[in-house]
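Holo model, zinc ion. Inputs:
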Amino acid sequence: MDEVLAGALRCGIYERLDYLEMLIADGDTTSLAALAETELARLSIAWRALLALHEPDERGRCTRCSGWRRGRLFPCSVWVVAHEHLIAANHHADATSAAP
Ligand SMILES: [Zn+2]
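Output:
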């Protein structure tokens, strides 16, 4: 992929995320429900695809993330971010909503 295409791809993805965040912030209940139905499935599939690329090998290392000489020891940053946003963030939200 050349530099222009790579730049367009990067911009396109950020624009898509901006659009989704704008809908989340300003969308009415009906459009949010429709959004959730399609986008939750897509985001879940995207996370699975990303995590599949970063599955540890038989030595427990991510071959996609470069470490010192060998792959990065599991969990690499992709798994750390996934845990932070898919698991840990939910626990924080639960703790907040459970507070009196
Ligand atoms: Zn990785």
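The beta strands are 61-66, 71-73. The two ends are 53 Å apart (CA to CA).
Archived with the compound record.
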